[in-house]
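Minimal example, chain plus pyridoxal-5'-phosphate.
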Amino acid sequence: MSQETNHKGTHLETRIIRERTAAGPHREQVTPLYMASGFTFPDAETARTVYSGEQQGYVYSRWENPNTDELIARLCALEGAEAGITTASGMAAIFSVLAGLLNSGDHILASRSLFGATHQILTTTLPRWGISHTYADSERPDTWADLIRPETRLCLLETPSNPGLTLVDLAQVVALCRTRGVHVVVDNTFATPLGQQPLAWGADLVVHSTTKFLDGQGRTIGGAILGDSFLIKELTQFVRQTGPTLSPFNSWLVSQALETLPLRMERHCANALALAEWLEGRPGVEAVRYPFLPSHPQHELATRQMTSGGGLVTFAVAGGVTGGRRFLNALQMCDIVANLGDVRTTATHPASTTHSGLSEGDRQAVGITPGLIRVSVGLEHIDDIIADIDHALSLSLS
Ligand SMILES: Cc1ncc(COP(=O)(O)O)c(C=O)c1O
């Protein structure tokens, strides 16, 4: 609502910066923060027409806010989406899609490699309401046709996955689902819209944890749902009623952060590739994974489907759980944080933190070995990042 329509440029880098909420009476250059729960009406008749949707205007910030609208417009430009919704967290985005679109008796087909909390929504929350799921082998969509049932309504994908960096062939899954009337929803948090555009591959909706690279500075928790305008309209009603709204303050911060996203992602991806190449073949390091490393088992798909490999690298250190924890304790610069996508390099031991809620068997099925380390490669100088990891590796092996 009330976006300026001229001089937005044609290139994405320009559009993210120039797409903004119209300036107010003071003609401020940067969009101000609209910390207002509600908006006033000049008279009772305007209140009635705005409230009913006959006339455009802001009503109440659980519904809509100028800062949130600006963020949505920028995210839509980035993903090539018709419409969008922002939410209080990435999990609120994922949960809103599932709870807002599905009914009791419906079935979800999901790629097996999913973020821990998403897995738990599927396995513990939705079954209470009669919504079931089947996990499919992320790397073998050719085996998925038999898993689609008459009651399958939605296919949920995470590519690349957290933390296994396993990919799903979007073109293949979309072709399969489209003919069967199954909506395809893709968690694009790891790639970001600059590394992969699922809607261009035919997906119906994209979800994001904006907490990660989109904010990029570890300050906010937020999420987004973007895509087909018909589905977004349906979900808007659900989100407005149930209230998992992103605050104006967080919307304002993330919207500004998007202005530097292209620059940041360039460096995240270059540093991640350099670290992955350095790690490969190091003594004590096993199974280095990065989508743009030629040794990644789905490297051909990665280079076809993605325009960059993202900012995450995983590897396994010798010594299992103890080795992984010793490595983290030996880091001197990189932070031990469950978050990722920050300007600062962060390292995590998924088996004992983000994915500790999964059974040992479920972790093994998605490649989370006991010594697996997930590094979110930041924007520090690559030589400093490598020096810290080199030092920690040598101590954890001694
Ligand atoms: C791939 C992915 N999706 C969703 C989420 C959840 O996002 P949030 O923590 O913003 O709720 C995460 C969080 O790490 C994630 O990595």
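The pocket of pyridoxal-5'-phosphate is lined by residues 89-91, 115, 158, 162, 187, 189-190, 209, 211, 221, 223 (CB under 6 Å). Residues 12-258 form a domain with the Aspartate Aminotransferase; domain 2 fold (CATH 3.40.640.10).
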